[in-house]
């Protein structure tokens, strides 16, 4: 089965209803359901989405919404454990790519280890690394844009989760 990696910032765009990200994130989920591919993310994402960069921590209500989403994620979403092998692969990435943040190194190492076909992110620093990591080179791209869709999966909706 085709596997594609989803960076934490894509889930943040969905949970926080960020106007520049939510439609693409929803379209990505819809595509995964329609085209039968898995969307994988590191267990690190569960912690990372609680405190969005440059925003206050999420409210108790927002945290409960996110906890419920990841407790029983929609069918195409798979959470991958962070183990020693992936952590050591992340170390190698950190030593070889100076500008890579440790959380990003964990996400990229997970994607490389799983042999995903594409790594979805909105992070400009990661997008700059498209085709520069892994063998074969990891494709890093923004999730495809599309109109807001009504999904048959339980997704956060409405106002920001925070």
Topology:
Elements: E1 3-6, H1 8-15, H2 22-35, E2 38-42, H3 44-48, H4 60-71, E3 77-80, H5 84-96, H6 102-114, E4 118-120, H7 124-127, E5 140-141
Parallel strand pairs: 1-2, 1-4, 2-3, 4-5
Helix pairs in contact: 1-2, 5-6
Task: Explain the overall architecture.
The chain is α/β, with parallel strands linked by helices and 162 residues long. It is built from 7 helices and 5 strands, in the order βααβααβααβαβ. It has helices at residues 8-15, 22-35, 44-48, 60-71, 84-96, 102-114, 124-127, and strands at residues 3-6, 38-42, 77-80, 118-120, 140-141. Strands 3-2-1-4-5 form a 5-stranded parallel sheet. Strand 4 (118-120), helix 7 and strand 5 form a beta-alpha-beta unit. Helix 1 crosses helix 2 and helix 5 (84-96) packs across helix 6. The protein is globular.
List its salient traits:
7 helices; five-stranded parallel beta sheet; globular; 162 residues; single chain; disordered C terminus; alpha/beta
């Amino acid at each position: 089965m085709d596997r594609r990696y989803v960076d934490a910032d894509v889930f943040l765009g969905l949970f926080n209803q960020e106007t520049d990200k939510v439609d693409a994130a929803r379209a990505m989920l819809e595509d995964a359901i329609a085209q039968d591919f898995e969307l994988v993310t590191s267990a690190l994402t569960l912690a990372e989405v609680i405190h969005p960069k440059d925003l206050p921590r999420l409210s108790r209500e927002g945290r409960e919404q996110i906890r419920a989403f990841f407790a029983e994620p929609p069918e195409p979403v798979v959470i991958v454990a962070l183990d020693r092998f992936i952590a050591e692969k992340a170390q190698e990435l950190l030593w070889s790519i100076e500008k890579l943040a440790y959380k990003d190194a964990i996400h990229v190492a997970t994607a490389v280890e799983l042999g995903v076909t594409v790594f979805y992110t909105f992070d400009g620093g990661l997008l700059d690394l498209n085709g520069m990591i892994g063998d074969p080179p990891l494709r890093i791209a923004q999730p495809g844009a599309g109109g807001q869709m009504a999904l048959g999966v339980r997704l956060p909706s409405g106002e920001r989760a925070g």
